Amino acid sequence: MAKRLIFLGPPGAGKGTQAQVLSENHQIPHISTGDILRAAVTNQTPLGKQAKDYMDRGELVPDALILSLIQDRLSYEDAGNGWILDGFPRNVNQAVFLEKLLSELNQSADCVLNLEVPDEVLVERLLTRKRKDDNESTIRRRLEVYHQDTVPVINFYQDKETLQTIDGNKSMEEVSESLSAAIA
Ligand code: AMP
Question: Among candidates 77, 82, 102, which has minimal Cα distance to 27?
Fold first, then answer.
């Protein structure tokens, strides 16, 4: 089975939940830039202090903060044998950076998984999730940012045979099954 996975998809598509399941089943680290940033905000680290306002507004955090974070995280020992990236890359510049970083590490992604869910379903899901950045105006902004900055990342990977699009508008179990089949 594929060991280096990139999860793409809008906020609320279920990337985090599905990535966590795969991470446990396959014993590979789940690397969520959103989780890392939220921990940094909670712990009031320099990174957290710089990231907080962007996150509260539903904007992307500047690449300068994210790129060094991901470079560090992929160099940890536990990432040597595989990983699941969730929430990164979020724009084409990050995707280009990742390609370069992986080639320096003599690695490449085995599979890019694109979880597709219609916007109206996402808004419903996010409104019931109750995270701090899950109020309606921030949700709308996060979806706009997704369409503007992250959809081009799908096109970036589309030319490569590694991209697989999965219907995320199904039950959690059904989506898990589709994902397992896609990476088998
Ligand atoms: P997420 O949990 O992936 O939805 O991320 C929550 C928030 O963290 C996003 O709305 C962004 O503000 C920030 N964030 C997470 N990942 C990235 C990234 N790769 N690039 C820029 N900002 C990010």
Answer: 82
